[in-house]
Structure formats: C-alpha cells, structure tokens
Amino acid sequence: MSASLSRLVASFDYAVDDFSLRASIEVGAETVALVGPNGSGKSTLLLAILGIRVPRQGRITLGDRVLFDAQKGILCPTEERHLAYLPQNYGLFPFLSAEKNVAFTIDCRQGHLGRPDRKRLATQYLDRFGIAHLAARLPSQLSGGERQRVALARAMASQPRAMLLDEPTAALDVGARDEVRALIRDSLRELGIPAIIVTHDFADVTSMASKLAVIEAGQLAACVDVAEAQRMPPTPFVARLVNAGATQAAAISPAG
Amino acid sequence: MTVLAVGLGTLLVVPFIALLVDGGPLAILRGFECSLTLPALRLSLETTAVSITFVVLGGTPLAWWLARSKWRSAKWLETLLQLPVVIPPAVGGIALLLAFGRRGLFGGWLERLGFAPTFNAIAVVMAQIFVSAPFYLHAATLAFARLDHDLLAVGRSLGASPPRLFFRVALPLAKPALIGGAAMSWARALGEFGATLMFAGNMTGKTQTLPLAIYTALEIDLRTAQALSLLLVVFAFGLLLALRRINQAPAALGKGSSSSR
Questions:
Q1: CB B160 within 8 Å of CB B169
Q2: 3-state DSSP call for residue B140?
Q3: Residues of A with CB below 8 A from B169's CB?
Q4: B211 at interface of A, judged by CB pairs closer than 8 A
Q5: Nearest 5°: phi and psi at A149?
Q6: Which residues of chain A have a CB within 8 Å of the CB of B149?
Q7: Among partner residues A51, A138, A158, which is closest to B158 by beta-carbon distance?
Q8: What does the pLDDT look like over A208-218, one tens digit per residue?
Q9: For the whole model, what pTM was predicted?
Q10: Beta bridge partners of A9
Q11: In whole angstroms, what separates CA B175 from the centre of its chain?
Q12: Prediction ipTM score
C-alpha cells in the first residue's frame, strides 16, 4: 500500500459532568503514541475519534471524509468510519472462535462474498499472524499474546483506514510484549495508515511510534518526534516517563 | 444464632419432605386420578408457553432500550415496570380487571378486536404476563447494562450496524442471563394464582391452571392437592437444576482452559 493520503485530523472539545477534554491532533501515515496521567482522557480521545463519544464542538476528518462536524451537524456512525479499535483487553468476542472473530468483520465489510470465500479469508488473516492452527479455539483458550494476534488479524481484516490502540501491551506478560510490539509495528507499517497508541510504557513509545503526544490537565499539550521527546521532554510528565523507561531498560538489559 | 439458622433451614426444607412422603406413594398416585389434573396440567403448560413467548419477544427489545436509553425517564419507567413484583398478586388481578375487564377502561376496545379477556385462556395468559414479565425484564435490563462497552464499541468499529450488533454481539453475550431470567419468569407464571383467580376466574378446563386446581382440590381431597403440588415442585426443581448447569457451563470452560496453561 502506498504512503496513504489519508490524514487523521481531530480538533474538538469534549465535556461530560466534571470531565472535559480539549484536543487537537494531526496524524499522517505514521504512529503517534499518546501518553498522559491516569484519567487525563486518553481513552476518551480514542472513543471520540471512534464516534462512541460525541464531542460538543469541533471537527474530525480522515483524508477527505468528514467523520464529525459539530457546526454542520455531521456525525458519521462508528461502523462507517473504518477505524480499527483495539481496547485494552483485546476486545475479542468470548463466544466466537478465533476464526469466527475474524470472520465477524469480513461478514460485515465483505458480505457480498460467498461463505467459503469469507471463511478462507479469515484463515488467511490468522495465518499472517502465525495462528491459523488456533482457528477453532475460543479466546479463553488462548494466551495473551495469541489473543492479541487474533485481535490484530481481525483489525487488519476490517480494512481500516486508521487504527486506534488502547494500551496494547499492558495486559501481556513481559516476555510477550516485545513480540507483540514488533507485530503491531510491522502491521501498521504494512497498512501505511494513521495510528494512535495509548500507552503508559515508554518502551511502547520507542518501539512502535514516531511521534509522541501528551494529554495533561484536560488538554492535548504537545506532539513531538519521539527522538526529540527523549532529548528534551516537553513536560515533566514525559520526563518522568522517559526516565522510567531508561531505568527499566537498564534493569532488564543485564539480565536479558 | 445457630438455633435460628437451623430453624430457618428446617422451615424451608421440611415442608418439601412432607409433600413427598406424607400419606405414602400409593395415596399420592391415586391423587393424580382426579378429573381436575389433566385439564389443569394442559392449560398450565399451554398458557405459560404463550406467556413466556410474549415476555421474551417483547421484553428483550424493551430491556435493550431501557439499558441503553440516556433518557432520564427511562429509569423511572424501569422502576414502574417492576411494580408487579412487589404488589400482592390479588391487587394485580383487580387492576387488570379494571383495565381490561368487560367493564374496564379498555374492555370494550379489546372486545371489538376480538381479544376479550373474559374468563378465558386469554385472561389467564394476560395475568401470567403481568406478574412474570418484570422478572425477565429485570434480568435482561441488568444483563444488557452490564455488557462490556469495549466489546460493543469494537463490534461497531468492525462494521456491525446497530441491529447486527444487537443480534450478533449483545444477545450472545447476554444469553446466559437472559435464559436465567426467562426461567425465573416462567416459574413465576407457572405458579401464578392470585391475579389469575381475580381476573380469569377458576373454571375447570378454561381458566383453572395447576395452582388453581390445587386450591379447588384441597376442598375435595387433600391427596389430590398434594399430588398436584408435587407436580409443580418437580417442574420447579428441574428448572433450578437446569439453571445450575447453564450457569456453571461457561465458568467451568474458563477454569479448565486457564489451568491447562
């Protein structure tokens, strides 16, 4: 896939009860890591782009498509936004096998295909993540890393034009994290689409993202290159995150 | 405390033992020969089959709407719909009579539609729905409200339209709770007595369900009442056992797979 022309541009105000979020973010065919203290609104930002939460004001566009425009009263339904969403706990349907989980989105997006074609396609996606042999297993019968692979295969099968990932490595064993990071990075590179990864772990930032965005005090504060953020952290929070990442890496490297 | 606990346990269990053994098996079996038995059993099974179908088909979308509505009045409506659980069934019977009886508010209207609930099976079914639907609605609303929001969001992001999301994601996720709610609802409908007596009357073969037959039989022959009661206990106990199996099945699956790793 060529370097995509689709650019994700979101600029909006969101408020509910005593929580408010003001965000303005532009993502080209690249991966932006989104960090910030707990409760600062990182997940809300993803859900607003996804169309599950509706901002009060602003505009969200993906390429030349308007997903949301408060002024013009445009609200594109979630299912027509073509955004892949990977929540914290993989978001697999527990009552469907790995293959049926992938087939779910193929049924939605490519319902014109015959049943055997859809089944074959689902297996192909699983195969790309090396888990075709686990097709018949239920999510409860898979390890964390395997579940994340199914979730990724399913996300790829949904033909996304942008990808939103909420702490994709947080629920994994430390050992499985690097592997999943590489899988996500390679998948995103292959798709060449805008991606936002919410994370608490600086290793996620350096391994998967090229840019870093920070939400603090209800505001999307800064969006800079990851290398620059390491050299000159834009906020104290990022400085702490970088330091924590460095100590962790130092602690791990002698052992491994 | 221990004495009270034992006392409570005894009070709950001993009546069933008495129901099972008092008078001996032969006397109980002879009780079944009463002419009330078969018509009542048939009517009970037929009417509850109809009422539970209505409750599930109407209650499932209503519960989905109640669980997802951001409308503040929906909470009030939810509470109002639980009213039949806490009022005495006889009160429900009177209320039904005043609403849908021949001289009730909507009685004439129903009669023109050919659905007059005047001492017939339609009245029995209406009474059963009135008292049993809240059990299903409560279970279903709770189940839908507790669904994992992330899974619903994922479902939509993968391309599922709202109806597809309901049928392919929400229903399968809520299925165990819905079955449980339907079973409790059915049990309540099967045991329904007060509202039926008031609203539908007690006519053998027409409106006399098993609980009403027990009431009538008690005046004729104690053993018949006992036999019919045993029949209801067997149904109810079978239902409880089936529910235990259903509730244990997914948990056992989860346990087995996590311990195998």
A1: yes
A2: helix
A3: 93
A4: no
A5: -65, -45
A6: 52
A7: A158
A8: 999 999 998 88
A9: 0.85
A10: A26, A61
A11: 17
A12: 0.91
